[in-house]
């Protein structure tokens, strides 16, 4: 594996981990639900 490809994998995994951490916060989930509800 090349260095660039390895760095891209690490960046993608970090982005997924950050998104997963947001979903564990109740306040963020309420905000997200309110925004989705406001669309309709």
Stretches where pLDDT falls below 50 for ≥5 residues?
A: none
Q: If you compute it from the alpha carbons, what radius of gyration comes out, rounded to the nearest whole angstrom?
A: 15 Å
- Counting helices, strands and paired strands, the structural category is mainly alpha
Strand content: under 5%
**What is the makeup of the main sheet?**
none
Q: Could you spell the SSE succession in H and E letters?
A: HH
Supply the number of helical segments.
2
> How many independent structural domains?
1
Question: Percent helix among the residues?
Answer: over 70%
Mean pLDDT: 91
The count of DSSP E runs of length 2 or more, i.e. the number of strands, is 0
Shape assignment: elongated
